[in-house]
Amino acid sequence: MDGYDYTKATIEASTSNLPDYNNVWVSVADKLGNTSTGEWSFNCMVAPVIGNLTPARDAGITNPQPTISAKVTDNGTINAQSIILKVRDTVVSHSFDSATGVVSYVSPQPLPEGINNVYLEVRDTAGNKGSVSWYLPGYAGYP
Questions:
Q1: How far apart are CA 109 and CA 102, in angstroms?
Q2: How far apart are CA 22 and CA 45, in angstroms?
Q3: How many Å apart are CA 62 and CA 125, to the nearest integer?
Q4: 59 in helix, strand or coil?
Q5: What does pTM read for this prediction?
Q6: Do strands 35-43 and 21-29 pair parallel, antiparallel, or not at all (unpaired)?
Q7: Nearest residue to 49 (alpha-carbon basis) of 68, 73, 70, 69
């Protein structure tokens, strides 16, 4: 277009070094000195991260009633009511320590022999979902 000259700018940053909410201000001027400004906000919320799986993936179990736990981290706030923990495809009653981010469960009865699948799903207050699944083999002496 005649008479117009513009520059396109791209700003890249890792979400790990940005706060949860960000504001951007832009000011532009033409050759005559006329200026225009704009402002907008955006949210850098990412899905919760689940780690420190206990017992570890595929670890042998020596206690038939192990404590099953995981640590959840997020750059926002975990929605405690969104947490779903399943053992052998059954939703179980768990505890959640919001100070440490630990979700835990101790079976009131010994886990059945054989492979026991565990599934954990967590959402933050922005609705971002993190999930993980792992297997606990039968306790000591069983495959």
A1: 22
A2: 10
A3: 37
A4: coil
A5: 0.67
A6: antiparallel
A7: 73
